[in-house]
Amino acid sequence: MPAEFHGAMVPARTGMMDAVKLAIVGGVLLVLGGLAMGLGLLPVSDALVIADRVWPILLFVVAVTIVAELAATAGVFDVAASWLARVAKGRTWVLWVLVVVLAVAVTAFLSLDTTAVLLTPVVVAVARAHRLDPLPFAFATGWLANTASLFLPVSNLTNLLAVERLDAGHPGSFVALLGLPALVAVVVTCAVLVLVHRRALRGSYAPARPPVVSDRVQLVVAASVVVVLLPLLVSGLPPWMPALAAAVVLGILFAWRSPGALRFALVPWQLVVFAAGLFLAVGALEALGSGAVVAAATGTGDDLVSLWQLSGVGMLGANAINNLPAYLAFESTADSPARLAALLIGVNAGPLITPWASLATLLWHARLTAVGIDVPWRRYVLLGLITAPLVVGLSVIPLALF
Q1: Could you tell me which residue, 391 or 51, shows the higher pLDDT?
Q2: Closest of 74, 145, 134 to residue 103, by C-alpha
Q3: Tens digits of per-residue pLDDT, 307-323?
Q4: How many Å apart are CA 341 and CA 150, to the nearest integer?
Q5: Which of 137, 135, 144 has its CA nearest to residue 94?
Q6: Which long-range contacts (CB under 8 A, 24 or more apart) does 212-218 make?
Q7: What mean pLDDT, rounded, does the chain reach?
Q8: Are 41 and 251 in contact (CB under 8 A)?
Q9: Residue 24 CB partners (closer than 8 Å, separation 6+)
Q10: SS3 assignment, position 238
Q11: Rounded to the nearest 10 degrees, what angle do helices 323-330 and 269-287 cross at?
């Protein structure tokens, strides 16, 4: 008798303690930034420039998070993952490859946090329903949430920041620069994962029953909204516009069909507070002359060695403090498209070593803990020490060759 797929069945915001800590750090940074303004260290005009740069990005983050959360509640990810299991026709390795493709697509269009937070419990549930080892599938979503976040501007908050400096009016310009490095990052990530989990990916499985859909109208409408949203995110419109429109549509849908699902926890306010405080604090440091110190560490030039130096410093900075402050700290030294791309490779694909290198990693681990899967940080760190330099180093090479 086939097993039954029960879906993710995880609270919408596991890892709340980590999120609260993030908000506290952001609040402290906001206070410090406010003090810098009060003391005249950060001119008000500079703070207004920062705010003008940041608000569209944070609005997009809020809107796309709400869209992803409501789509997950409607069962969109559950149904998609279950469909992949049927398409794989009982072949474990084919199912894993299809999960990789899904993780890359979700990361590229709906951001790395969506993959880490919402897709991870879904693929774990699919693996368990088919009596498979969930670790290869969990590691695929956890690592690819980071390394696949180089494809599009909307894939990562750092990318949205970088688009302005690239003067890329259309996502196609971003893809032209980082498409090949992103592909290399994904391939290298998958190669390491296959090597590590090769035994678990052998064999076959019996089909499980599809997930139970409690509200088919809600599912169809939510899926349609996501399908329409994806091309609009790469249409050249400011990303916050289609994301906000999709969030409003889904909000109306859930107010009609499932009003209890509309709660304040859908808004990633902790991330907004953290990012706002971080932008203000970094602006204050730059006003105090931190750029000269940073420039000495990152070097200059667009040759391969120089690009490796910048991406390596970005990778180390991300694993030391976090990828977002690392990007902001080194952004001023990325004075060419190739150097900016190298920095993005370092801070996006490099956070595979320490737990705090990427917020997505912390949320991913919290989701795994919530569904009863223990991934010791020691194992994660040891694998990351091998994988991160490989991914970053090989992904930078196309920048120097083409």
Answers
A1: 391
A2: 145
A3: 999 999 999 999 998 88
A4: 9
A5: 137
A6: 212/6, 212/7, 213/75, 213/79, 214/75, 215/74, 215/257, 215/258, 217/257, 218/74, 218/75, 218/253, 218/254, 218/257, 218/258
A7: 87
A8: no
A9: none
A10: coil
A11: 30
Under 8 Å between Cβ of 149 and 391? no
Between the two ends of the chain, the Cα-to-Cα distance in Å is 54
* Residue the block writes with tokens 């501007």: 153
Contact in structure between 394 and 183 (CB atoms under 8 Å): no
Q: Computed from CA positions of residues 58, 61, 64, 66, in that sequence, does the dihedral angle turn out positive or negative?
A: negative
- Rounded to the nearest 5 percent, the helix, strand and coil shares of the chain are 75, 0, 25
**The two three-digit tokens of residue 385, written as one number:** 């020490």
Token pair 């795994």: residue: 368
Q: What is the mean pLDDT of residues 44-56?
A: 82
Distances from the Cα of 153 to the Cα of 184, 272, 301, 344, 381, angstroms: 17, 18, 24, 11, 28
Dump pLDDT digits (tens) for 342-394: 999 999 999 999 988 888 898 898 888 888 898 889 999 999 999 999 999 99
Residues constituting the chain: 402
Over 80: is that where the pLDDT of 192 sits? yes
Structure tokens at 270: 């902790």
